[in-house]
Amino acid sequence: MARPRPEEFDKKKVVAENRRARYDYAVQDKYEAGIALTGTEVKSLRFGEGSIGESYAEVKDEEVWLINANIPEFSHGNRFNHEPKRPRKLLLNQRQIAKLHGAVAREGMTLVPLSIYFNGRGRAKVELALAKGRKAPDKREYQKEKDWKREQGRLLRQHG
């Protein structure tokens, strides 16, 4: 069997994205975590359904859980369909879990899911961020900085 090339793993199909998270939080570290799903949840995600806008993650009993993520019931599912907002276990190494737990407990940081996607191998993954909440003045400063970078890009395209 031929060994897969690394570029095959880079492909990903984003299913759900939390765009507001980058505005509300200052992202410091990002982690890629597997997610434990049932069959009908995977099928719903493959159809592009699901949202993580109001979801968060928490460390409980040396495990990380994705809370309040909405994956709607599969349309062709029968009595084995899943509960849409059930807590879902995230799959990380023990060392990563310990680091996340320490940051959340000591430094007052938050675990925010940025996106759910399928990687090159077809596995469902969650991009998890260790972030600190922004207050209103910080949000305004972030918006100004973002607008200035956009304006810089425009100016460079016009005059470059």
UniProtKB/TrEMBL annotation:
Its main location: cytoplasm. SUPFAM superfamilies: Small protein B (SmpB) (SSF74982). It comes from the Bacteria. Keywords: Cytoplasm, RNA-binding. The keyword Zinc does not apply. One of its GO terms (molecular function) is RNA binding. InterPro entries: SmpB (IPR023620), SsrA-bd_prot (IPR000037), SsrA-bd_prot_CS (IPR020081). Residues 135-154 have a biased composition (Basic and acidic residues). This is SsrA-binding protein. HAMAP family: SmpB. It comes from Allosphingosinicella flava. One of its GO terms (biological process) is trans-translation-dependent protein tagging. Pfam families: SmpB. The gene is smpB. It is found in: Cytoplasm. Required for rescue of stalled ribosomes mediated by trans-translation. Binds to transfer-messenger RNA (tmRNA), required for stable association of tmRNA with ribosomes. tmRNA and SmpB together mimic tRNA shape, replacing the anticodon stem-loop with SmpB. tmRNA is encoded by the ssrA gene; the 2 termini fold to resemble tRNA(Ala) and it encodes a 'tag peptide', a short internal open reading frame. During trans-translation Ala-aminoacylated tmRNA acts like a tRNA, entering the A-site of stalled ribosomes, displacing the stalled mRNA. Residues 134-160 are annotated as: Disordered. Coiled coil: none annotated. Belongs to the SmpB family. GO terms for cellular component: cytosol.
